[in-house]
Structures are given as C-alpha cells and as structure tokens.
Write a structure and sequence with these properties.
Elements lengths: L2 H31 L3 H24 L3 H18 L7 H19 L3 H25 L4 H7 L1 H4 L15 E5 L20 E5 H52 L4 H50 L1 E3 L1 H4 L2 H11 L4 E6 L4 E3 H21 L4 H6 L6 E10 L3 E8 L6 H10 L5 H4 L4 H5 L22 H11 L3 E7 L3 E9 L6 E7 L2 E6 L5 E6 L4 E3 L2 E6 L2 E7 H5 L12 E9 L2 E7 L1 E7 L15 E6 L5 E5 L1 H9 L8 H7 L3 E5 L3 H13 L3 E5 L2 H10 L4 E4 L8 H10 L8 E5 L4 H10 L3 E4 L5 H11 L1
Parallel strand pairs: 4-6, 15-17, 21-22, 21-23, 23-24, 24-25
Antiparallel strand pairs: 1-2, 3-5, 6-7, 7-9, 8-9, 10-11, 10-18, 12-16, 13-14, 14-15, 16-17, 19-20
Helix pairs in contact: 1-2, 1-4, 2-3, 3-4, 3-5, 4-5, 8-9, 11-12, 12-17, 22-23, 23-24
Length: 764
C-alpha cells in the first residue's frame, strides 16, 4: 500500500475513532445513571454498535491492540444486553479505563509511547476478560455465539455517522428562516463537504488579512482627496491671478492667452481626471468595504460551534475526579446547543476545567459529611448556557457544595500578605468573595495535584477578561457557589486607538477605553508623588503612559493647559492615562508575539498600519496592574507628627472611593478605619473612638444623612465632626445635610483633596 495513502487512511481513522470513543463515553455515563429497562436497552444497543464499528475500523488499518480490546468490550456489552451481567462501579471503571487507553494509544507521539500503552491495553483486556468469566452466567465463547452479526456472518447493522467535533459541514443551500448559520451538522446530506477546522481557521486569518488591503485603499483614497483639494485650490488661485492680470494689463491679454492657454487646458484636464479618480476610488472603497465586511461576517458564521463542542468531555472529567476523591458527583448541562465563536470555546476550556476541579475538590463534600448536613449523598454541578441581549452568552456554573469559607479566605489573604489587616477589615462579603480571583489566594487546607495552589481562579478571571467577558461569584455557606460568566458570541473585529507618547506610537483596543477626555491641568490634585483627578464623581489615579512604560523622548508632553487622557475602567479599578496625542481610530489586527516574546509585560502584540508601520498594542490589564504595583508615598515626617494621633472613619459603599480617600489621609499620617455603609459605620463608632467621620451620602441600609442624624442623637457621639462627601449637588441636598448635623458638605464633582485636608485640619 502506498505510504502516503496509508497515512491519510490513519488520519481518517483517528478522526472516526475520536467520534466513536466520545459516543461510547457518553453512553457509559448515561448507563450509570439510567434505571429504566426500555431506555437502558436502547442505549446499550447504540453503545454496542459504536464499539463494534470502532473494532471494524481498527481492523481495517491493522491496529490489533484496539481491535482486541474492542472485542472484549463488545463481549461485555453483549452480556449486558442479554441480562447475563449486572452493572456495577467495577465494570464501569474497567470500561472507562479501556476508552482512556484507546484514546492514549491514538495520541501517542512515538513507538515507545505506543508500546507502553499497548502493554496497558493487554493488561486491561485480561482483567476485563477475567471479570466477564467470573461474573457472566455463560462463558465468553457462548456470548460471542449469541451475537447476531457474528453468528450469522451478516454485516453489522448500519451505524449512524455523525461528523466529529474536529470537522465542520458547509452547506450550499440557503439558511432557514430561524437564522441558523449557513452550515449545520447533519447526516446523509448530499450537498455538504467536510472541512477541517484548521483549514477554516487559516481561511479566517487570510480573510482578515484583506483588511490591510482595505486600509491601504483608504489611505490611497485620502491621498487622492488631498490632491483633489490641492488642484481645486490651485485652479482657484489661477483664476484669481488671471483676473487681476487682465484688469491690470489688458493690453497683454493676447500674449497671456498664448502663453498660458495650453497650461490652463492641461490643468483643467488634470483636475477633471483627479476628480474622476477620487470619485471612483471612493465608490470602489465603499463596495470593497461592504464585500470584505460581508465576507468576514460569513466566515464568522462558519466559526460558530455549539457549546457541546466544549462540554462533551465534562461528564467524564467529573466522574473521574469524583472517583479519585471518593465523592459521588453528577453534572447537568443545559443549553449546550447554544452557539459561540469556536475561538472563544477553545479559550474557555482551561477556565471551565479549573472551575469544575475546584467545585469537586473543595466545593462538593464527602458523602459522610453530606449525610451529616442532611444533603443528598450525590453532589450536583450544573452548567447553564443561554443567549442574551447584545450578542452575549451568559453561562452559570454552580454546585450545591460547601460554599466559600470567608474566614479561611481572610486567613489566606493575610498569610500571603495580599492586603493589610486594616484594609481587609472594611471589605464587604461580596468584595471578599471576589478576592478568590487574586493570585496565591486559596481556601484549600492542602495543596494537591488537583487544586490548592491559588493560581486557578486567577487564570480563570484573566482568560475571561481577555475575551472581553466578565465573571462574578456568589456563595452561601454550606449551600454552594455560583459563577456567572458573560461573554460575546463572536471575537470582535477590533478597532484601535492609535496614540503617541513622546516619539513612540502605540495602539490600544477601543473596546478597552471607557472615555477619551481632556483634563485641565489646574484640576489635578497631588498627594506626595501621586496625582488624581475627579472623573464621574470618583477620584481617579492619573498616570503618564510614557512614564509608566519608561519611554524617553524629545517632543513636548502635550498642550500646556490640558492633558489628553484615556479613561479606563476594569471592575472597581479606574485609571486615567495621559498621552501626548491621539492620532486616529481605525481597524486593527493584533498579531501576537512569537514564542521568544510570548509574554511581554504591558503589551499583547503588534499591528500593522496602512502606511506599513508596525505599532505595539498595549495590554490594558497589565497597565492597570503596573499602576497598582507602584510604591506608595510615605507620610511626610512633619505632617506625621501633627496628625499621627488623629483617627478618622471613612464611610463609602464604593471600595474604590474608600481606598483612595483612605490612602490620601494615611499619606498625611492620619489613622484611618473604613466602613462600607452608614449602619456599619455607626456600629464601629459604638466600639471605637474617632476624631472625625468622612462619609458618602448615597449608601444602602443607612445613608449619610441618617448616619449624621444618629451621631447627633447619640450622647457620646454628638460632638463628633462629620464631613459629607457626595455627588448630590442641589441646594436642597446641601441644606438637608446641614440639618442632619454635618459640619461640612463637599460635592464630588468639585472634589479637591487639599480642601478636604484643610477642612479636616480645621475641624480637629
């Protein structure tokens, strides 16, 4: 047999084998759960056929190891079908192990790897055969004789073929009215072709490259428009000059016409040509842009896959992990037919596995503990997927386990020195739970090969955010935990802002920027070497992008009166980066760095501009992390002496505002505690003594007005100074604050750090 053909045959077999193995695995998992005889018989028949078909395919390519173990697996299914064998965990463990060994054999990289797995297959075949001999009423030989297709020498029953997950089927016919994409995975369709996803990925990349052609055409069109404008200007100047010449020197008009006549005709002809070319260029650009955008949209439709492509292996993963940890766990998956961009699904594999492993390892309890807590012995994990508005997919992953132990979480945060005890003390419970996404944080008491290193959840959050998604966590102690993930259906075609810092140009994805704003330099407030500015009622850190990136140059740092800033929000984090100039916004294709530069801090890759210039693309999440790691300004010695004995309570339901005001006051030497709303603050005031309260107004449970009133009613606290800092700027709001007992009322929109510090100094 021709070697090239044989290699192609082997590759085809691997694809077919993967399909059969997946179906056998799913059949085994369902058989473990089913109890109805009719459903069980149907499922046994289907799974039996899958094993038989895999055996025949293995025989066709001469892989005797797979053929032999499939023969033994067939015997087990035949015995189950005829009621000669009872199901139990030991049998299912042996059958699952057989599937794993076959899969491992197919993926072995070299002969030594195949030999090692082949020995495992031999051992398992013996073990399974011995099990059947001991547990089947009749001998294996009798069982084989009873197999209808073996005994009669008739061909095996037809096996329904489904296209494997690694391939797609492209349809030529029109999509149905309910807006399914123009492809589908169907059986026995004559007008379909099978295309590997690798080829579709390559096609999509090449399609995206056409965007560069579009950008080049835009550049040419802009140049033509400029030339047209110059010709128009030149023609106008010529007419004006000629008119002046005719009026001043009428006697030389004939000579002028003789000298300039041919040039004027040439100028007019060139002007007409340029206008025509500009018009046609604009028309061609418009048509090409539409065609390119439609082509990209069509390719994106082809890249849609159902979530089952991602979740197909999860039941087996949950079963195996549960077995290893001596836990009984069941997984339910709803909405697996919901479709999403294949590239997003591929990136979600690791985050989902991390979440499942965490749920099983230190979410779901051991059976004896669940019984003690009056829970069902079997733990449950549920994944629900559904489409949402705005081209989003919402995924929830929840379990009915033990939930997050807040006290263990606090100990982990303090042990790893991720946050100071004082700052930790004023986090709300939801804010604390979100700390599980910080690197090194783990509530596991021991580190295992499954979990406990404190890296998994940080990886989950990073992966989700890089896909333009969000993740949040909710937990009830002893009841369970729920993760809610929101993601786009498609990986967006990127638009990027091109900016300049000193002499360097950079790109940043537009989707990562909340606003581009100009800030008057007079509104910048400084504490030590830290600068902040008020944006949307929040004091926001202001950072020079060039300084953060360590760029030096000779150009000026922008307008002497205003700064151009990129305002970026990520969860509770807010940063304003000032740059020298915003050049433009355009479509960009991010090219990742090669292996040698796979992880460059603050950068995610590079893009090519229409003029051929290569520009680095900034990584927003890295930039924010770099700002957070900047060292804090130590208190000034003279200020520390005058204020170190003064204690202030800061009250705000926004963690960002609390931490920023707290840092400002601490940098001037004040001792600061924080509370997350009025009720928490009033309780704290009963337990500790303070010299002053700085409070927000709009808060849950007890607002700032109510807090001030309660302080004035309390005999012990009635003389305590209270400063209200709020976005409520109406005169009646200010009057209400004064009537409530506030000593000062500061509007956030005109927030001035020095004014706050001066007010505090006057009051205490």
């Amino acid at each position: 047999m021709d070697q090239t053909f044989f290699q192609r045959l082997l590759e085809t077999f691997r694809v077919e084998a993967d399909e059969h193995l997946m179906n056998i695995t799913n059949g085994l998992l369902e058989l473990e759960q089913l109890h109805g005889d009719q459903e069980r018989a149907s499922l046994l028949e289907t799974t039996f056929r899958e094993a038989h078909s895999l055996k025949g395919a293995a025989r066709a390519v001469g892989i005797s190891e797979i053929e032999n173990i499939c023969q033994t697996v067939e015997s087990a299914f035949a015995a189950l079908k005829q009621g000669q064998l009872d199901t139990n965990n030991e049998l299912f463990d042996l059958l699952h192990e057989g599937v794993d060994l076959i899969s491992g054999f197919l993926r072995a990289q070299d002969d030594s790897g195949k030999m090692k797995i082949s020995l495992g297959i031999e051992d398992l075949t013996k073990d399974l055969s011995e099990y059947l001999v001991l547990n089947v009423d009749d001998s294996i030989d009798k069982i084989k004789k009873k197999l209808p297709h073996e005994a009669s020498h008739e061909p095996p029953p037809p096996v329904e073929k489904t296209f494997p997950a690694s391939e797609r089927v492209l349809h030529e016919r029109q999509a149905p009215e309910h807006k399914k994409p123009a492809w589908a995975i169907e059986q026995n369709v004559s007008d379909t072709v099978r295309i590997s996803t690798a080829k579709i990925d390559e096609l999509f990349v090449k399609t995206q490259e056409i965007i560069y052609t579009k950008l080049s055409m835009e550049q040419i069109q802009q140049e033509l428009s400029w030339i047209e404008m110059m010709f128009t200007s030149l023609t106008d100047k010529y007419r004006i000059t000629r008119f002046e010449f005719e009026r001043t020197f009428p006697q030389h008009l004939d000579n002028l016409n003789r000298l300039l006549g041919p040039h004027q005709e040439m100028l007019n002809e060139l002007s007409r040509k340029v206008k025509y070319l500009t018009k046609e260029s604009r028309k061609g650009l418009r048509q090409s842009s539409n065609n390119i955008e439609n082509l990209i949209e069509n390719i994106k439709e082809v890249l849609l896959l159902p979530f089952s492509h991602l979740t197909a292996g999860f039941p087996k993963l949950v079963r195996d992990l549960g077995r290893d940890l001596k836990k009984d766990v069941e997984i339910t998956i709803n909405g697996a037919d919901t479709q999403c961009d294949k590239r997003i699904l591929e990136e979600l594999k690791d985050p989902f596995i991390h979440l499942l492993r965490n749920s099983i390892d230190h979410g779901i309890e051991k059976p004896d503990i669940r019984i003690k807590n009056k829970k069902p012995v079997q733990g449950n994990i549920t994944i629900s997927i559904q489409s949402s508005e705005g081209g989003k997919v919402v995924i929830t992953i929840e379990d009915d386990g033990d939930g997050i132990d807040i006290e263990k979480l606090k100990r982990s945060i303090l042990t790893k020195q991720i946050m100071e005890p004082q700052r930790l003390s004023y986090l709300t419970e939801p804010e604390l739970m979100n700390m599980i996404f910080y690197s090194d944080v783990s509530t596991a008491e021991t580190i295992s090969d499954i979990s406990g290193r404190g890296l998994g959840m940080a990886i989950v959050k990073e992966k989700i955010e890089k896909l333009d998604g969000t993740i949040r966590v909710e937990s009830v102690r002893h009841k369970g935990i729920k993760f809610t993930i929101s993601l786009p259906v498609y990986l967006a075609s990127l638009r990027g802002i091109i900016l300049r810092c000193n002499e360097s140009e950079f790109a940043i994805p537009t989707v990562r920027i909340s606003r581009i704003i100009r800030i008057n330099r007079s509104n910048i407030k400084s504490v030590g070497n830290k600068e902040t500015v008020n944006i949307e009622g929040y004091p926001v850190a202001l950072v020079g992008l060039a300084d953060l990136l360590g760029i030096r140059g000779t150009k000026s740092s922008g307008n002497p009166k205003y700064l151009t800033c990129l305002y970026i929000k990520s969860g509770e984090k807010r940063v304003a980066f000032w740059v020298d100039e915003i050049l433009n916004e355009r479509e960009i294709i991010i090219k990742p760095f090669n292996a040698q530069l796979s992880r460059v801090k603050n950068f995610s890759g590079a893009t090519l501009l229409a003029n051929g210039k290569i520009v680095p693309v900034l990584n927003v999440f890295d930039l924010i992390a770099s700002v957070e790691k900047q060292t804090k300004t130590p208190p000034r010695e003279s200020e520390e002496k005058t204020s170190s004995e003064k204690k202030i309570l800061v009250v705000d339901d926004s963690i960002t505002s609390r931490m920023l005001v707290k840092d400002i006051l601490e940098s001037f030497g004040y001792i600061v505690r924080a509370a997350f709303d009025g009720l928490d603050a009033f309780t704290t005031l009963q337990l500790e003594e303070f010299d002053l309260v700085v409070s927000d107004v709009e808060m849950p449970r007890m607002n700032g007005f109510e807090l001030a009133q309660n302080i004035r009613k309390d005999a012990k606290l009635r003389n305590l100074p209270v400063i209200l800092v709020t976005s409520l700027a109406k005169p009646e709001d200010r009057e209400r604050g004064i009537q409530a007992g506030a000593n000062a009322y500061i509007i956030k929109s005109s927030f001035d750090q020095s004014a706050l510090l001066d007010t505090i100094e006057r009051l205490i």
